[in-house]
Design a protein that fits this description.
Number of strands: 6
Distance between the termini: 91 Å
Largest sheet: 6 strands, mixed
Shape: elongated
CATH superfamily of the largest domain: Conserved hypothetical protein from pyrococcus furiosus pfu- 392566-001, ParB domain
Order of helices and strands: EEEHEEHEHHHHHHHHHHHHH
Length: 355
């Protein structure tokens, strides 16, 4: 009986099409008849400030197993860059996980579609739209949703360019893709930009606005939001702090087990432009909003059985107060004579509390 070879797990839709790799022996890169070039991995750097989390652990291992069993799948998309200080000649746009998995199984080249003369905005479009096509928007982390919406909302966004990129990516994933079968979302032309985004991604206008603010956070705070250590609402308030102030907040949080609620976040925002590390620590620890301990003794009533020992109905209230005041003055004077050190210590503590 012939045993069946186990079918490797596929980590994403971009692994469905198998492409063979044919590295050239005489040069660092070669062009295949289909226009796909074989590029050494050590010539390709990651996309700088990549806004999406990469595969890890079992998910990355599944992809590595798939590549080892079947070879490299659909070509990655890279762009040509000026030779940088680390010797990189290309930058990855679509295929970071495939490159990591290929390294794990010992491959030193990738089949690549090389883009030249791309602007930074166009390069970001490739990065974002690739992830949107391969993943459900609802499954994305808050910072990833924020980046997608931020790109779509920005002044440099071009719907025409986006459509071209999407068509190219879909054709790459599925050679039988037919544009005529695609349906476009029905967006009213009179809708505002944030309303259009809400319709397209199933979000309210307010949620779109909050996510656009999340994209203003420093990467370190975005990670805390993605890890559910900072809620979406407090994060919006923190996004109004400048870069140095956000770093101060992160430093305090990383060194202590403090929580960030709306009250603390709003107070931090009130100090925007003048927030110091010390102020951030006082606010996040709760010290800034903690009520001072009341030094004044709590009021009390003199019990009737005590009152009647020394006073009768003939004594007026003012007279009673005067007698009690003199009696207490004599009592504490006597206590001071008997234990002067204890009395001086109490005076010092009172003096310090006033200061």
């Amino acid at each position: 009986m012939v045993s069946k070879r186990p079918i490797p797990k596929l980590a994403s839709i971009d692994e469905l099409l198998l492409l063979s790799e044919q590295p050239a022996e005489s040069s660092d890169s070669s062009v295949h008849p289909e226009g796909i070039q074989s590029i050494p991995i050590d010539k390709i750097r990651f996309y700088q400030n990549h806004p999406f989390r990469l595969y890890e652990d079992e998910r990355l291992m599944d992809m590595a197993d798939s590549i080892q069993a079947n070879g490299i799948l659909v070509p990655v998309i890279i762009r040509k860059i000026a030779l940088d200080e680390n010797g990189y000649e290309y930058e990855m746009l679509a295929g970071h996980n495939r490159m990591n998995a290929a390294r794990m199984v010992g491959l030193d080249r990738l089949p690549c579609i090389v883009k030249e003369h791309l602007s930074d905005e166009e390069a970001l479009m490739y990065v974002v739209e690739t992830n949107v096509l391969q993943r459900s928007f609802s499954d994305m982390l808050p910072s990833e949703k924020a980046k997608v919406l931020s790109l779509r909302y920005s002044d440099m966004f071009s719907q025409g360019k986006r459509n071209d990129i999407i068509e190219e990516l879909k054709m790459l994933e599925n050679p039988h893709y037919n544009k005529k079968n695609e349906t476009s979302p029905l967006l009213g032309t009179k809708l505002r930009s944030d309303e259009k985004l809400g319709h397209e991604y199933g979000l309210s206008k307010n949620t779109v606005a909050r996510l656009l603010r999340i994209d203003k956070l420093a990467p370190s705070l975005k990670k805390l939001v993605d890890d559910a250590k900072i809620g979406l609402y407090p994060a919006v308030s923190l996004s109004y702090l400048n870069e140095a102030e956000q770093q101060a907040v992160h430093d305090v949080l990383s060194q202590n087990d403090y929580k960030v609620d709306m009250k603390k976040a709003e107070l931090l925002r009130e100090y925007s432009g003048q927030l110091t590390n010390e102020q951030a620590a006082r606010i996040l620890s709760g010290e800034a909003t903690r009520k001072p301990r009341n030094k004044t003794p709590a009021p009390f009533k003199l019990k009737h059985k005590v009152y009647t020992k020394y006073f009768s109905s003939a004594h007026k209230a003012a007279e009673v107060e005067e007698i009690i005041d003199k009696a207490l003055e004599m009592y504490f004077a006597q206590q001071h004579q008997q234990n002067p050190e204890s009395h001086e210590k109490k005076e010092d503590n009172t003096h310090e509390s006033v200061l």
